[in-house]
Protein backbone atom coordinates (compact mmCIF):
# COMPACT_ATOMS: atom_id res chain seq x y z
CA UNK A 1 0.00 0.00 0.00
CA UNK A 2 2.89 2.36 0.68
CA UNK A 3 4.17 1.99 -2.88
CA UNK A 4 0.76 2.18 -4.55
CA UNK A 5 -0.88 5.57 -5.18
CA UNK A 6 -3.70 6.53 -2.86
CA UNK A 7 -7.21 5.80 -4.18
CA UNK A 8 -8.96 8.71 -5.88
CA UNK A 9 -12.06 8.19 -3.75
CA UNK A 10 -11.82 10.18 -0.52
CA UNK A 11 -14.31 7.79 1.07
CA UNK A 12 -12.07 4.83 0.29
CA UNK A 13 -9.05 6.78 1.61
CA UNK A 14 -10.86 7.44 4.87
CA UNK A 15 -11.72 3.78 5.35
CA UNK A 16 -8.21 2.62 4.49
CA UNK A 17 -6.67 5.28 6.74
CA UNK A 18 -8.71 3.99 9.68
CA UNK A 19 -7.51 0.45 8.97
CA UNK A 20 -3.93 1.67 8.78
CA UNK A 21 -4.28 3.56 12.07
CA UNK A 22 -5.45 0.37 13.78
CA UNK A 23 -2.59 -1.56 12.17
CA UNK A 24 -0.11 1.10 13.28
CA UNK A 25 -1.30 0.76 16.87
CA UNK A 26 -0.79 -3.02 16.77
CA UNK A 27 2.67 -2.60 15.25
CA UNK A 28 3.55 -0.10 17.97
CA UNK A 29 2.33 -2.62 20.53
CA UNK A 30 4.70 -5.25 19.16
CA UNK A 31 7.53 -2.72 18.93
CA UNK A 32 7.01 -1.52 22.51
CA UNK A 33 7.13 -5.08 23.83
CA UNK A 34 10.49 -5.66 22.17
CA UNK A 35 11.90 -2.28 23.19
CA UNK A 36 10.88 -3.00 26.76
CA UNK A 37 12.77 -6.28 26.69
CA UNK A 38 15.84 -4.61 25.20
CA UNK A 39 15.72 -1.94 27.89
CA UNK A 40 15.31 -4.35 30.80
CA UNK A 41 18.20 -6.50 29.61
CA UNK A 42 20.51 -3.59 28.80
CA UNK A 43 21.15 -5.08 25.38
CA UNK A 44 21.55 -1.69 23.70
CA UNK A 45 24.69 -1.07 25.75
CA UNK A 46 26.10 -4.41 24.62
CA UNK A 47 25.91 -3.05 21.07
CA UNK A 48 27.82 0.12 21.87
CA UNK A 49 24.97 2.50 22.66
CA UNK A 50 24.94 4.59 25.82
CA UNK A 51 21.24 3.96 26.43
CA UNK A 52 18.13 2.43 24.92
CA UNK A 53 16.96 5.90 23.93
CA UNK A 54 20.15 6.63 22.00
CA UNK A 55 19.89 3.24 20.32
CA UNK A 56 16.36 4.12 19.16
CA UNK A 57 17.59 7.47 17.89
CA UNK A 58 20.35 5.76 15.94
CA UNK A 59 18.41 2.73 14.71
CA UNK A 60 15.05 4.35 14.14
CA UNK A 61 15.83 8.01 13.57
CA UNK A 62 13.69 8.93 16.58
CA UNK A 63 13.92 12.07 18.64
CA UNK A 64 15.09 11.65 22.23
CA UNK A 65 11.64 12.58 23.65
CA UNK A 66 9.95 10.15 21.24
CA UNK A 67 12.39 7.39 22.16
CA UNK A 68 11.79 8.09 25.84
CA UNK A 69 8.05 7.71 25.42
CA UNK A 70 8.49 4.39 23.62
CA UNK A 71 10.82 3.08 26.34
CA UNK A 72 8.34 4.10 29.03
CA UNK A 73 5.56 2.38 27.12
CA UNK A 74 7.62 -0.79 26.71
CA UNK A 75 8.51 -0.93 30.40
CA UNK A 76 5.02 -0.19 31.71
CA UNK A 77 3.22 -2.59 29.36
CA UNK A 78 5.24 -5.34 30.96
CA UNK A 79 3.09 -4.99 34.09
CA UNK A 80 -0.15 -3.48 32.77
CA UNK A 81 -1.68 -6.68 31.41
CA UNK A 82 -5.10 -5.25 30.60
CA UNK A 83 -3.68 -2.31 28.68
CA UNK A 84 -1.19 -4.59 26.91
CA UNK A 85 -3.91 -7.00 25.74
CA UNK A 86 -6.22 -4.29 24.45
CA UNK A 87 -3.36 -2.49 22.72
CA UNK A 88 -2.24 -5.69 21.00
CA UNK A 89 -5.74 -6.49 19.75
CA UNK A 90 -6.16 -2.98 18.38
CA UNK A 91 -8.99 -1.82 20.66
CA UNK A 92 -6.95 0.83 22.47
CA UNK A 93 -5.32 3.74 20.64
CA UNK A 94 -1.62 4.52 21.02
CA UNK A 95 -2.27 7.99 22.46
CA UNK A 96 -4.34 6.58 25.31
CA UNK A 97 -1.83 3.80 25.97
CA UNK A 98 0.97 6.36 26.14
CA UNK A 99 -1.05 8.50 28.57
CA UNK A 100 -1.69 5.53 30.86
CA UNK A 101 1.91 4.35 30.76
CA UNK A 102 3.15 7.85 31.54
CA UNK A 103 0.78 8.02 34.50
CA UNK A 104 1.92 4.69 35.99
CA UNK A 105 5.64 5.15 35.39
CA UNK A 106 7.45 5.26 38.73
CA UNK A 107 4.47 4.03 40.75
CA UNK A 108 4.56 0.80 42.73
CA UNK A 109 2.98 -2.26 41.12
CA UNK A 110 -0.06 -1.94 43.39
CA UNK A 111 -0.49 1.74 42.60
CA UNK A 112 -0.03 1.08 38.89
CA UNK A 113 -2.75 -1.58 38.83
CA UNK A 114 -5.12 0.78 40.66
CA UNK A 115 -4.43 3.56 38.18
CA UNK A 116 -4.74 1.17 35.24
CA UNK A 117 -8.30 0.20 36.15
CA UNK A 118 -9.44 3.78 36.67
CA UNK A 119 -7.84 5.11 33.49
CA UNK A 120 -9.07 2.23 31.34
CA UNK A 121 -12.61 2.91 32.48
CA UNK A 122 -12.19 6.58 31.64
CA UNK A 123 -10.73 5.70 28.23
CA UNK A 124 -14.10 4.26 27.24
CA UNK A 125 -15.60 7.74 27.09
CA UNK A 126 -12.66 10.15 26.90
CA UNK A 127 -9.75 10.95 24.62
CA UNK A 128 -6.01 10.80 25.20
CA UNK A 129 -5.79 14.37 26.56
CA UNK A 130 -8.45 13.71 29.20
CA UNK A 131 -6.83 10.41 30.18
CA UNK A 132 -3.44 12.13 30.51
CA UNK A 133 -4.93 14.85 32.71
CA UNK A 134 -6.61 12.26 34.93
CA UNK A 135 -3.35 10.33 35.06
CA UNK A 136 -1.46 13.33 36.39
CA UNK A 137 -4.10 13.79 39.08
CA UNK A 138 -3.91 10.10 40.05
CA UNK A 139 -0.13 10.29 40.39
CA UNK A 140 -0.48 13.24 42.74
CA UNK A 141 -3.03 11.32 44.85
CA UNK A 142 -1.32 7.93 44.87
CA UNK A 143 2.23 9.21 45.28
CA UNK A 144 2.39 12.82 46.55
CA UNK A 145 6.18 12.76 47.04
CA UNK A 146 6.67 11.36 43.57
CA UNK A 147 4.42 14.06 42.15
CA UNK A 148 6.79 16.74 43.45
CA UNK A 149 9.71 14.85 41.93
CA UNK A 150 7.79 14.63 38.64
CA UNK A 151 7.37 18.40 38.56
CA UNK A 152 11.08 18.93 39.18
CA UNK A 153 12.03 16.33 36.57
CA UNK A 154 9.60 17.95 34.14
CA UNK A 155 11.30 21.30 34.70
CA UNK A 156 14.77 19.75 34.36
CA UNK A 157 13.85 18.40 30.90
CA UNK A 158 13.31 21.90 29.49
CA UNK A 159 15.04 22.90 26.27
CA UNK A 160 14.42 25.27 23.38
CA UNK A 161 16.36 24.80 20.15
CA UNK A 162 15.84 27.09 17.18
CA UNK A 163 17.48 27.55 13.81
CA UNK A 164 17.12 30.33 11.31
CA UNK A 165 15.45 29.74 7.96
CA UNK A 166 16.57 31.40 4.75
CA UNK A 167 13.56 33.71 4.84
CA UNK A 168 14.55 34.95 8.30
CA UNK A 169 11.99 32.95 10.23
CA UNK A 170 12.81 30.54 13.04
CA UNK A 171 12.01 26.88 13.41
CA UNK A 172 13.02 24.26 15.91
CA UNK A 173 11.84 22.08 18.74
CA UNK A 174 11.33 22.55 22.43
CA UNK A 175 10.13 21.04 25.66
CA UNK A 176 8.62 23.31 28.29
CA UNK A 177 7.24 22.43 31.75
CA UNK A 178 3.70 21.09 31.69
CA UNK A 179 2.51 23.78 34.09
CA UNK A 180 2.76 26.30 31.25
CA UNK A 181 0.03 24.49 29.36
CA UNK A 182 -2.69 26.44 31.18
CA UNK A 183 -1.28 29.68 29.75
CA UNK A 184 -1.76 28.41 26.22
CA UNK A 185 -5.19 27.08 27.14
CA UNK A 186 -6.16 30.62 28.14
CA UNK A 187 -4.39 32.80 25.58
CA UNK A 188 -4.63 30.52 22.54
CA UNK A 189 -8.41 30.33 22.60
CA UNK A 190 -10.29 31.61 19.53
CA UNK A 191 -10.65 35.37 19.92
CA UNK A 192 -14.22 35.54 18.69
CA UNK A 193 -16.83 33.66 16.77
CA UNK A 194 -15.54 33.01 13.29
CA UNK A 195 -11.87 32.85 14.32
CA UNK A 196 -10.74 30.21 11.84
CA UNK A 197 -7.10 29.99 12.93
CA UNK A 198 -5.86 26.48 13.61
CA UNK A 199 -4.74 25.56 17.12
CA UNK A 200 -1.09 25.54 16.05
CA UNK A 201 -1.43 29.06 14.65
CA UNK A 202 -3.22 30.27 17.80
CA UNK A 203 -0.42 28.78 19.92
CA UNK A 204 2.15 30.60 17.79
CA UNK A 205 0.24 33.88 18.06
CA UNK A 206 0.03 33.53 21.85
CA UNK A 207 3.76 32.79 22.09
CA UNK A 208 4.61 35.80 19.92
CA UNK A 209 2.41 37.99 22.10
CA UNK A 210 4.29 36.80 25.20
CA UNK A 211 7.65 37.57 23.62
CA UNK A 212 6.51 41.01 22.52
CA UNK A 213 5.13 41.79 25.99
CA UNK A 214 1.63 42.13 24.65
CA UNK A 215 0.34 39.77 27.30
CA UNK A 216 0.90 40.56 30.95
CA UNK A 217 -0.30 38.93 34.10
CA UNK A 218 -2.74 41.19 35.90
CA UNK A 219 -3.61 41.11 39.59
CA UNK A 220 -6.93 42.63 40.57
CA UNK A 221 -7.14 43.66 44.23
CA UNK A 222 -10.46 44.61 45.74
CA UNK A 223 -10.52 46.67 48.94
CA UNK A 224 -13.62 46.98 51.07
CA UNK A 225 -13.98 50.06 53.29
CA UNK A 226 -15.35 49.21 56.74
CA UNK A 227 -15.99 51.86 59.42
CA UNK A 228 -13.99 51.33 62.59
CA UNK A 229 -15.88 50.87 65.84
CA UNK A 230 -15.11 54.28 67.26
CA UNK A 231 -17.17 57.33 68.09
CA UNK A 232 -18.79 58.67 64.91
CA UNK A 233 -17.30 62.11 65.43
CA UNK A 234 -13.79 60.86 64.69
CA UNK A 235 -14.81 59.44 61.29
CA UNK A 236 -11.84 57.10 60.93
CA UNK A 237 -11.83 54.05 58.68
CA UNK A 238 -9.85 50.90 58.34
CA UNK A 239 -9.23 49.03 55.11
CA UNK A 240 -9.33 45.28 54.88
CA UNK A 241 -8.42 43.37 51.74
CA UNK A 242 -10.98 40.92 50.51
CA UNK A 243 -9.92 37.28 50.70
Given the helix and strand composition, which structural class is it? mainly alpha
Helix and strand run: HHHHHHHHHEEHHEE
Radius of gyration: 25 Å
Number of helices: 11
Strand content: 5-15%
- Profile the largest sheet: 2 strands, antiparallel
Distance between the termini: 64 Å
Gross geometry: globular
Low-confidence stretches: 232-243
Instruction: Identify the strand order in the major beta sheet.
Output: 1-2
The multimeric state of the shown protein is single chain
Strand count: 4
| Mean pLDDT across all amino acids | 83
Please give the share of residues in helix.
55-70%
Topology readout:
Layout: H1 10-41, H2 43-46, H3 52-60, H4 64-77, H5 81-89, H6 94-104, H7 109-123, H8 128-142, H9 144-156, E1 159-164, E2 170-175, H10 181-187, H11 199-211, E3 223-227, E4 237-241
List key phrases describing it.
disordered C terminus; about 240 residues; two-stranded antiparallel ribbon; 4 strands; two-stranded antiparallel sheet; mainly alpha; about 10% strand
